[in-house]
Amino acid sequence: MKKILVIEDNPDMRDNIVEILELANYHVITAQDGKDGINRAREEHPDLIVCDLMMPGIDGFGVLKILSTDPLTTDIPFIILSAKSTKEDIRAGMDIGADDYLTKPFEEMDLLNAIQGRLRFRERLSSHNSQGKEANTSPLHFLYSEEKARGIVLAPEVTGRPHKYKKGATIFVEDAFPRYVYYVQKGSVKIFTSNEDGKEFVTGIAREGDFFGYKALLNNVPYLDSAYALVPTELLQIKSDDFFNIINSHRDVSFMFMKQLAHDVQNYKAKLLSLAYDSTRMRVAQALIQLMEKTGSNSVRISRDNLAQIVGAASESVIRILGEFKSEMLISTAGRTIEIMNENGLRAVQ
């Protein structure tokens, strides 16, 4: 039985939609506003979402933007319901990723046909992707091999010997002109920007296996961030001339960095949306989960100041929230090490 999430703030309209869908043999879950809908989508991972456009707080567009940047929910078909019926309104909904747009009032069969059509399309897509040995990889795997690309760009004759940095050593500073693309062979690097008062905001953490410093080089502009070693770190350096020669000569390398750029844009968008809509508790929980996924370990070693910079909140607030998580048995702490004890509980934090 397919699971449908209905996000609608009008109780009468919500009940009417639920009745239609249950009679059509769908399992229906509901949410009364955008924030509730986002949380239910992350918890339940429905097969399809039907969402009203005009709601208090986070409207339908905001819900779609947030869910479309979350890897857990980005593939869920999304149908917008709205009393707005101009071409501009419909185009706006489709432009940000809606799969369909129905105007109120609508006929029962219009809604059912839209849902059935999106579910059939998703099933055909899943069936197609399941054929072949690389079913769960990006479609780009038909165009390039990431293993081959890394072998080319990280060849010893290109990078030379690893460059070692002590903990706290500066790798590059904001407004300096880029000369290298960096690859983390060992350790981790904090990438951050500062405001006029010197307050830092972390824009990324590069760990083993990550490239960084290439965006400014590709855009031919000074660095917009600074970077320093969080721990003793070893980096491979690809000179700018060598990097561009490789990009121009090897399609595999070009596609690898195109994919990385797209991934970075998605992450930045998700972070901005989180700052706009999510509570500080939720941002702290999400930051811990992301660090856990990045390191592949339930143990995250990070200072409270650095975690606060990632979250975009005061250190005092982050320390207080970590204390709450500890009392709720979601985490344990020992010095700078944070042990995640209940991943599902962290993901459910609001």
Notes on the structure:
With 350 residues, the protein is of the alpha/beta class. 46% of the residues lie in helices and 22% in strands. It has three domains: 3-130, Rossmann fold; 146-273, Jelly Rolls; 278-347, Arc Repressor Mutant, subunit A, CATH 1.10.10.10. It contains 14 helices and 16 strands. The strands form four sheets. A five-stranded parallel β-sheet has the order 2-1-3-4-5, sandwiched between helices. Strand 15 and strand 16 (337-340) form a beta hairpin. Helix 2 runs parallel beside helix 3 (60-68) and helix 6 crosses helix 10 (251-277). The longest helix is centred in the C-terminal third of the chain and has 27 residues, at 251-277. The model is unreliable at 131-137 (pLDDT under 50).
Q: Which descriptors would you attach to this protein?
A:
Arc Repressor Mutant, subunit A, 3 domains, Jelly Rolls, 16 strands, Rossmann fold, alpha/beta, globular, 5-stranded parallel beta sheet
The termini sit apart by 28 Å
How would a textbook summarize the main sheet? Answer: 5 strands, parallel
Name the CATH superfamily classification of the largest domain. Answer: Response regulator
Strand order of the largest sheet: 2-1-3-4-5
**Which range does the strand content fall in?**
15-25%
Per DSSP, the total helix count is: 14
Please state the CA-atom Rg, rounded to the nearest Å.
Answer: 23 Å
**Tell me, what's the shape?**
globular
Q: Give me the CATH architecture of the largest domain, please.
A: 3-Layer(aba) Sandwich
Tell how many strands the DSSP assignment holds.
Answer: 16
CATH topology grouping of the largest domain: Rossmann fold
